[in-house]
Automatic annotation (TrEMBL):
<keyword id="KW-0030">Aminoacyl-tRNA synthetase</keyword>
<keyword id="KW-0648">Protein biosynthesis</keyword>
<keyword id="KW-0547">Nucleotide-binding</keyword>
<dbReference type="InterPro" id="IPR004364">
    <property type="entry name" value="Aa-tRNA-synt_II"/>
</dbReference>
<protein>
    <recommendedName>
        <fullName>Asparagine--tRNA ligase</fullName>
        <ecNumber>6.1.1.22</ecNumber>
    </recommendedName>
</protein>
<dbReference type="InterPro" id="IPR002312">
    <property type="entry name" value="Asp/Asn-tRNA-synth_IIb"/>
</dbReference>
<dbReference type="InterPro" id="IPR006195">
    <property type="entry name" value="aa-tRNA-synth_II"/>
</dbReference>
<keyword id="KW-0436">Ligase</keyword>
<dbReference type="InterPro" id="IPR004522">
    <property type="entry name" value="Asn-tRNA-ligase"/>
</dbReference>
<dbReference type="InterPro" id="IPR004365">
    <property type="entry name" value="NA-bd_OB_tRNA"/>
</dbReference>
<comment type="similarity">
    <text>Belongs to the class-II aminoacyl-tRNA synthetase family.</text>
</comment>
<comment type="subunit">
    <text>Homodimer.</text>
</comment>
<dbReference type="Pfam" id="PF00152">
    <property type="entry name" value="tRNA-synt_2"/>
</dbReference>
<dbReference type="GO" id="GO:0004816">
    <property type="term" value="F:asparagine-tRNA ligase activity"/>
</dbReference>
<dbReference type="Pfam" id="PF01336">
    <property type="entry name" value="tRNA_anti-codon"/>
</dbReference>
<keyword id="KW-0067">ATP-binding</keyword>
<feature type="domain" description="Aminoacyl-transfer RNA synthetases class-II family profile">
    <location>
        <begin position="137"/>
        <end position="454"/>
    </location>
</feature>
């Protein structure tokens, strides 16, 4: 057996003890004293371990030909390090070369600084870099913390379907799913195929949100959440949109807008605290190399209260700001990312919970407020990225819901099962969706969501 590098660096083996580690060469350099230093990483922590190879090794000639990317099994003695940067190192007793890099000149991850755009072209090799390694550990830490947060509070994790016939958000941004056979079915003179003949007997899509499904479980199990992949055919090439992204959607029965706003604040604080405690090594790297404010910003988030603001007040603030925005501001418009960022970054300087949006810019299921103009919606806007959470109290009153469906030209038939929740023991309930990649980008300071998901799907890009 072999030890993870993190265990050796954390001192789980005494000086003088023999241990085996396995991983990939990040760098190697020869010293004048006739020995070789190898930085070996295995993903278990930010730092590689320094392996000292003495010229007395049988295969020292081979060791001197090692380059970045070669894979090794090293058995060695744990020693206090003379060099700066690490307390412990491994003096090799043997170095087993598991896999050579066939031609170092063609190895795309050669040890130098690559641009983040360059790394995107090598989604299969980029996990070997410092930056993607750090993102991967923070992403994992966040997802574990999210599950822990809900578990500790008595929520059940519900698996909602990926394949669905409903357009939850009603935004028409769905990917259609069909069998290959279906693509060859005869078409009518308008070029339309008859979906009754297809696998599911109706037109089917990849889900844009698990919300409608998870609402059914909230109306029985009380506190639930989904955590799964969602898909949107948004043809927007921005740094915060993906065609495939992960969403966390809690849904709570007997809860209103302020309950769910509080839940979003508690959850974000809990998971950010977990990252500060568990991933200090990676966060120190992000602070140094990606964004110098990133750690301070997380600490502030954990310690301060989120600001709650009404949409109507936000419009007034934007109008009074004297700023020239690309998209003009007036009551009724959707907030664009420049508006969101102005509010979160310049006006407040911290996350904002924005509430009570005009009903015309929000989805059909949101609960109508008494003013008949706004709905009980909430978005969490974070500095540096804008909207990371969107949620609402749901319309639980059947008559109001039906009126809204009609107003939006949606059919009762299509929402029959959803209406049943309002017909049989309806209760006030509320929930939200957290975009996982936007959270990871916010926490790490990474500029683009494409760099915080292993294999980003964007317009024109589904390789790997
Ligand atoms: O605001 P959205 O559209 O809300 C919903 O889907 C609700 N059904 C959620 C609910 O109440 N259960 O999306 C929620 C979040 C956004 O705030 C954003 O963080 C993220 O999902 N998101 C995206 N992330 C990456 N790429 C995209 N194309 C995204 N679209 C939304
Ligand atoms: Mg939204």
């Amino acid at each position: 057996t072999h030890a993870p590098v993190v265990d050796v660096l954390k001192g789980q083996y005494a000086e003088g003890e023999t241990v085996t580690v396995k991983g990939w060469v990040r760098t190697r350099r020869d010293s004048k004293a006739g020995l070789s230093f190898i930085a070996l990483h295995d993903g278990s922590c930010f730092d590689p371990i320094q392996v000292v190879a003495l010229s007395s090794l049988d295969n020292y000639a081979d060791v001197q030909r090692l380059t970045a990317g070669c894979s090794l099994a090293v058995t060695g003695t744990v020693k206090a390090s003379q060099g700066k940067g690490q307390a412990l190192e491994l003096e090799a007793q043997s170095i087993d070369i598991v896999g050579w890099v066939e031609n170092p000149d063609t190895y795309p991850m050669a040890a130098k600084r690559h641009s983040i755009e360059y790394l995107r072209e090598y989604a299969h090799l980029r996990p070997r870099t410092n930056v993607i390694g750090a993102v991967t550990r923070v992403r994992n830490c966040l997802s574990q913390a999210i599950h822990r947060f809900f578990h500790e509070r008595g929520y059940y994790w519900i698996s909602t379907p990926i394949l669905t016939a409903s357009d939850t958000e009603g935004a028409g941004e769905m990917f259609r799913v069909s069998t290959l056979d279906m693509m060859n079915l005869p078409r009518d003179d308008k070029g339309q195929v008859d979906y009754a003949e297809d696998f599911f007997g109706k037109e089917t899509y990849l889900t844009v949100s698990g919300q409608l499904n998870v609402e059914t479980y909230a109306n029985a199990m009380s506190k639930v959440y989904t955590f799964g992949p969602t898909f949107r055919a948004e043809n927007s090439n921005t740094s915060r949109h993906l065609a495939e992204f992960w969403m966390i959607e809690p849904e709570v029965a007997f809860a209103d807008l302020s309950d769910i706003a509080q839940l979003s604040e508690d959850m974000l604080k809990y998971v950010c605290k977990a990252v500060l405690e568990e991933r200090a090594d990676d966060m120190a790297f992000f602070e140094q190399r990606i964004n110098k404010d990133v750690v301070r910003r997380l600490q502030a988030l954990v310690e301060s209260d989120f600001v709650r603001m009404d949409y109507t007040d936000a419009i007034n603030i934007l109008q009074a700001s004297g700023k020239q925005f690309e998209f003009p501001v007036e009551w009724g418009v959707d907030l664009s990312s420049e508006h969101e960022r102005y509010l979160a970054e310049e006006h407040v300087g911290a996350p904002i919970i924005m509430q009570n949006y005009p009903k015309d810019i929000k989805a059909f299921y949101m609960r109508l407020n008494d003013d008949n103009k706004t709905v009980a919606a909430m978005d969490v806007l974070a500095p540096g990225i804008g909207e990371i959470i969107g949620g609402s109290q749901r319309e639980e009153r059947l008559d109001v819901f039906d009126a809204r469906l009609e107003e939006m030209g949606l059919s009762q038939e299509d929402y029959a099962w959803y209406r049943d929740l309002r017909r049989y023991g309806t209760v006030p309930h509320a929930g939200f969706g957290l975009g996982f990649e936007r959270l990871v980008a916010y926490v790490t300071g990474m500029q683009n969501v494409r760099d915080v998901i292993p294999f980003p799907r964007t317009p024109g890009n589904a390789s790997f």
